[in-house]
UniProtKB/TrEMBL annotation:
Protein name: Predicted kinase, aminoglycoside phosphotransferase (APT) family
UniProt GO molecular function: kinase activity
Signal peptide: none
Organism: Meinhardsimonia xiamenensis
Positions of the Aminoglycoside phosphotransferase domain: 29-253
Statement: the UniProt record of this protein carries the keyword Signal: no
CDD domains the record matches: ACAD10_11_N-like
Keywords: Kinase, Transferase
Length: 342
């Protein structure tokens, strides 16, 4: 597949010249290898570089690939303690390229796919993780009223709502029976904690490879991929971060399982959670194992959707989509292990 097989670059340039201040074509597009859900492109033009994110082609699940929500939340966070790219324009007219898309600032920076951070010193690794912790706390400290995000998600029990949503989406994309996933869903439904009233902005997919760091310092310059953001329970984001580190290391698992983290200068799960609690002024993180089991379940459901799109020919990167989909049973088993630990 060519870089521009998913994008009519000329149509984008014509639209952008009318809607993005300072945009001047012609444009060339290069597709980023990351961004499984919403295909993402770098646009290079005589007026500079931009980034475009679009919904993928084909039949999509309802409420999935919400580029309009991504656009809204990043615009709301502009100038806040949460670093985001500047967003320029949202196109909801599907006649332009076949689906909704938006154009935002291209932010130069380092993207760390492997959380072991090869090539960095112990001190640099510690700085990267501490900054990640700071940014997570900043997201959960956003003033919803001041940013106009009070209605960005419904009221009520976030975990109950999410379990129902992702169970439905998992069933809609199920390609074979995975007993561990069925058992995990049943456990989550039977062990749902009472709603504790915590309600913050949540990123929904907070992990190291969704952050951009400055080229020469452990400073986050942009939080990316806001597709799953909503108003919800902050501990879901925290658990999703820890969940990723319990996966195998390497490009596919992107985890830290079995890694001597102390030797590398990387905080343990407990140290990261404790630092977050201090930043948020909390004495403890209650029901964290439930949140962790939920995080494994939800990621398993997401990856099942990626696998289904790859099989249907709608994935941004079909080969990678199938590789990621192969992890679904592993996420389900890890979710059950977290549940038993609790």
């Amino acid at each position: 597949m060519t870089d521009t097989a998913l994008l009519d670059v000329d149509a984008v340039a014509r639209w952008a010249e009318a809607h993005v201040p300072g945009f001047r074509g012609p444009a060339t597009a290069t597709k980023f290898a990351t961004g499984q859900s919403n295909p993402t492109f770098r646009l290079d033009t005589p007026s500079g570089s931009f980034v475009l994110r679009r919904k993928p082609p084909g039949k999509l699940l309802k409420s999935a690939h919400a580029v309009d929500r991504e656009f809204r939340v990043q615009r709301a966070l502009e100038g806040s303690a949460v670093p985001v790219p500047k967003v320029y324009a949202l196109c909801e007219d599907e006649s332009v390229i076949g689906s909704a898309f938006y154009i935002m600032e291209h932010v130069p920076g380092r993207n760390f796919v492997d959380p072991r951070l090869p090539g960095l010193s112990r001190e640099e690794r510690a700085g990267v993780f501490d900054e990640m912790n700071r940014v997570l706390a900043a997201i959960h400290s956003v003033d919803l009223a001041a940013t106009g995000l009070s209605d960005f998600g419904p009221e009520g029990n976030y975990f109950a709502r999410q379990i129902a949503r992702w169970t439905k989406q998992y069933r809609a994309t199920e390609t074979e029976t995975i007993p561990a996933m069925d058992t995990l869903i049943a456990w989550l439904e039977a062990n749902l904690p009472a709603d504790d009233g915590r309600r913050t902005l949540v990123h929904g997919d907070f992990r190291l490879d969704n952050l951009l760091y400055a080229p020469d310092a452990p400073v986050c310059v942009a939080v990316l991929d806001w597709e799953l953001s909503t108003i919800g329970h902050p501990f879901a984001d925290l658990a999703a971060t820890v969940m990723q580190w319990r996966m195998p290391p390497g490009e596919e698992g992107r985890g830290l399982a079995g890694v001597d983290r102390a030797a590398l200068g990387i905080p343990s799960d407990e140290e990261f959670v404790a630092a977050y609690a201090r930043r948020m002024g909390l004495a403890e993180i209650p029901d964290f194992n439930f949140a962790l089991a939920f995080a494994f379940f939800r990621m398993g459901a997401i990856l099942q959707g990626v696998k289904k799109r790859a099989l249907d020919g709608n994935a941004s990167n079909p080969e990678r989509g199938l590789k990621m989909g192969a992890f679904v049973p592993q996420f389900a088993e890890a979710g059950l292990k977290a549940a038993r630990e609790g």
